[in-house]
Design goal:
This protein is mainly β and 801 residues long. The chain is 6% helix and 54% strand. It has a 22-stranded antiparallel barrel. The longest helix is centred in the first third of the chain and has 19 residues, at 2-20.
């Protein structure tokens, strides 16, 4: 009896072990996050499997004596015998490699594809990068790549500059939906901060024209944000979540966040809530006195007073708050059809525009007592369907239907005035995308699709004076409309295992319907804007892999930027003494570009990587701000001030070129280093420097990882822009630049030394902390109004639920 009982118990233990052994979990050695897409196979390649979105897979087909290879391009490849995995209870940790080959990308074709087959230059920012870098906003997230320059007019801002373009000439995409609307402006733009960085699962930047896939606005590049995805599980229901709280000393930031996911084999849900509170930003102690905030305006008993600001280090009226919500629901109808619905909403408090608040009326008085961006609200509803149904016409179809609502406003009052100007804009944006792909053969794939976009703009403006509200000139024509219809085709051919060719073509039609209110804007002639323009763009690229350690890309592409309502119909005081007026005759601008990339890995384990990329672009019918006339007059009274009339016009051409170099190395398993430098040059046909051409910028990192610790010591550097290389529009901003020895305005160079670190307290909790600007430099990034943060201690606690 006892022997029988022992045999029964032993048999039960063996059975339970075998059952338990069927499921393997693969996680990141550093972050403890699950790793999807790990390819697991035997040495003879007769058995294989791949981890799912939860980092798990069934390994029941493997025998205990099988040697199993674990392969992922972002991690060091390892070899284990199955029976050796038992001691870790079938949980395997993989070590990340700094030479992340980014095996798969989405942004280039709106579809998952092999990175090595894409001829464009791309940079990817992974969930791990975001987790360790702790960005305050999505603008900071993009800047953390080290390859995108970000300008800030105020702390609640961030305008990425890519290859000499910015604002409405670079495209923002969220989960496959374009965010650029009809009033995205040509000046610096901060809409990217509406995207909560805590929900970004991965971000990709495609450099150069992306008009074939994305249409208008994608001149400098495309910034694609992929938010937390829904997950399914075939092994029963699951629940997982993350919580975070972050503190930053330079602006006394406090940011809590929580997200959680639930799911089954059919249903999935992701919920996220974030909040951030920022106080006034403090600048560094070591630097130029011109950057100090020496005084500010305070309204006392209804009267504006100039107040001295102590040591001038605190940048008065830069603080703000924001919150963001996300809800996603996924439903898998069957193995061929699944649906995803997402709701994203973000809102801010008033955001003081710092660069306007430091403009001076005279030596003793500031120009404005108040200049705020009102609450910046963004809502997106996105319903998508993925259909996998090979039928001759297509293999896969993705339908994306989206509705977005934007609201922004401007509130300003001059020093000593009782009149406060309020301008409010709302945009309803509808979009529909139908994207197909068809694997014509084992070597070629056809991507094609159509897109429809409709924008409706509401614009209101009033002046408040002692409780009385008086209608004034709106920024845009009220009840104006912007429409876009497009069709594209992209053909990819793997000529051989070493060479991939990509051909693309797109036609876009843009329609604008707007009526200018001439009640406050006296004019002669017809200001009914009824524009119908079309554009054809194309691309031809090749990605060549002459050997396992080489990658050689060449890409020829064209892009276009059609005038939107901001370009063609805006009335706005762009600079002191200047006013921009509408120009109904504005036409699209076109960009023709060639870029190349050369990448090489070295070493027995490919532990060293060198990447060199360059581009040359030619812009024709460039849309630029130039002097203009209204009723034959070159100056008019606007907002109580005689102002030079200007407008956005097509003029001549421009040439832009640049080069970037990136290197990385794994010295050993613990020590790694990487760095990069970017240089851009651009002038128009009149010899003027272009406004959004950045100074040379660079970064270098030394990274140490050991068990539960990670340290990243790095330097950020920005070169100077001399007076001779300043754009004409920048020379009209004496309040943000300094004088050289000849009395000319210029942007000085600067650098910061920084340290980021992480410690894994438990398998489910992590503490990150760091110090930015260790030497407490006082600096201002090119074209920025805000001065950069001084010595800044950052700490965050993250936990997995």
């Amino acid at each position: 009896m006892k022997i029988s009982f022992f045999i029964l118990v032993f048999g039960l233990i063996v059975f339970m072990q075998n059952v338990f052994a069927q499921k393997l979990e693969v996680i990141d050695y550093a972050t403890k996050e699950p790793i999807s897409g790990v390819h697991i196979y035997t040495i003879d390649e007769k058995k294989s499997t791949t981890t799912d979105s939860l980092g798990t897979c069934d390994i029941s087909e493997f025998e205990n004596n099988d040697f199993m290879v674990f392969s992922h391009t972002s991690y060091t490849q390892v070899l284990f015998k199955k029976q050796d995995l038992y001691t870790s209870r079938y949980k395997l940790e993989l070590h990340p490699t700094i030479l992340n080959l980014e095996e798969f990308v989405i942004s280039a074709n709106k579809r998952i594809q092999a990175r090595e087959e894409v001829p464009n230059k791309l940079v990817s920012i992974t969930a791990k990068d975001i987790k360790l870098n702790d960005p305050q906003t999505s603008a900071d997230l993009i800047a953390s790549s080290g390859e995108v320059f970000v300008q800030k007019s105020q702390m609640g801002g961030g305008s990425p500059m890519i290859r000499g373009f910015s604002a409405n000439k670079v495209l923002i995409v969220v989960d496959g939906v374009r965010m650029n609307n009809a009033i995205f402006r040509g000046g610096n733009l901060q809409n990217v901060i509406s995207i909560d960085p805590n929900i970004v699962e991965k971000s990709e930047v495609v450099f150069g024209p992306g008009s074939v896939i994305y249409g208008s606005d994608a001149l400098g590049g495309v910034m694609d944000f992929q938010t937390l995805s829904t997950s399914y599980s075939d092994s029963g229901n699951f629940f997982k979540g993350n919580a975070m709280v972050r503190y930053s000393s330079a602006n006394n930031e406090l940011s809590p966040h929580i997200d959680f996911s639930i799911g089954s084999s059919k249903w999935s849900s992701v919920t996220s809530i974030s909040y951030s509170q920022f106080s006034d930003l403090k600048m560094g102690t070591n630097g130029r006195d011109e950057y100090l905030r020496k005084d500010y305006v305070e309204t006392i008993d209804g009267a504006d007073k100039m107040i001295l600001n102590g040591d001038g280090l605190e940048q008065k009226f830069t603080g703000y708050s924001s919150y963001a919500l996300m809800q996603k629901i996924g439903y898998k109808l069957n193995d061929r059809i699944n649906f995803d619905y997402s709701f994203l909403y973000s809102n801010t408090s008033d955001i003081p525009r710092y660069d306007r608040l430091i403009q001076r009326k005279n030596e003793d008085t500031l120009k404005f007592a108040r200049w705020d961006y009102g609450p910046q609200k963004w809502m997106m509803n996105n319903l998508s369907m993925n259909l996998n149904a090979p039928n001759g016409a297509f293999d896969n179809l993705k339908v994306t239907l989206a509705f977005q609502n934007f609201e922004e406003s401007r509130i300003s009052r001059r020093f000593g005035s009782t009149s406060e100007k309020n301008q409010t804009e709302q945009v309803d944006m509808y979009s529909a995308n139908f994207d197909f792909d068809n694997a014509i053969s084992g070597r070629s794939t056809l991507y094609y699709g159509v897109e429809f976009i409709y924008n409706k703009v509401k614009s209101k403006a009033i002046s408040k004076d002692n409780g009385e509200e008086i209608p004034i000139m709106t920024r845009y024509p009220d009840d104006s409309r912007y429409m876009s219809n497009a069709a594209y085709v992209n053909f990819q051919v793997n000529h051989s295992r070493k060479t991939t060719f990509v051909f693309g073509l797109r036609y876009n039609q843009i329609l604008i319907d707007a009526t200018l209110d001439t009640t406050f804007y006296k004019s002669q002639g017809n200001y009914e804007i009824d524009q119908n323009t079309g554009a054809v763009t194309g691309s031809l690229g090749v990605a060549h892999r002459p050997g396992e350690s080489w990658q050689m890309n060449m890409n020829f592409s064209s892009g276009f930027k059609a005038p939107n309502i901001d370009d063609i119909a805006k009335v706005f005081d762009s600079q002191p003494g200047n006013v921009i007026v509408p120009n109904p005759d504005l036409k699209p601008e076109y960009l023709y570009s060639v870029d190349g990339l050369l990448a090489k890995t070295f070493g027995s384990d490919k532990q060293y990587k060198f990447e060199l990329s360059g581009f040359y672009s030619f812009l024709v019918d460039a849309m630029v701000q130039r002097e203009f006339q209204v009723n034959g007059q070159d100056s008019i009274i606007y907002d109580g001030e005689l102002s030079q009339v200007q407008a956005i016009v097509n003029t001549g051409s421009a040439k832009i070129s640049g080069v970037s170099l990136n290197v990385s190395a794994e010295i050993n398993r613990n020590w790694k280093c990487k760095g990069g430098v970017t240089y851009t040059y651009g002038k128009d046909n009149e010899g003027n420097n272009l406004r959004h051409v950045t100074p040379v910028f660079a970064n270098a990192h030394i990274i140490y990882e050991f068990k539960k610790l990670r340290f990243d010591a790095y330097i950020n550097y920005n070169g100077a822009i001399s007076n001779k290389k300043m754009a004409p529009s920048e020379l009209l901003k004496p309040h943000i630049y300094v004088l050289d020895e000849n009395g000319g305005l210029y942007a000085p160079n600067w650098y910061t030394l920084n340290l980021k670190s992480a410690i894994y307290i438990t398998k489910k909790s992590m503490l990150t902390f760091g110090v930015e600007n260790i030497t407490n430099q006082r600096y201002r990034a090119y074209s920025s109004g805000i001065v950069g943060p001084g010595f800044n201690f950052i700490a965050s606690l993250k936990a997995t639920i």
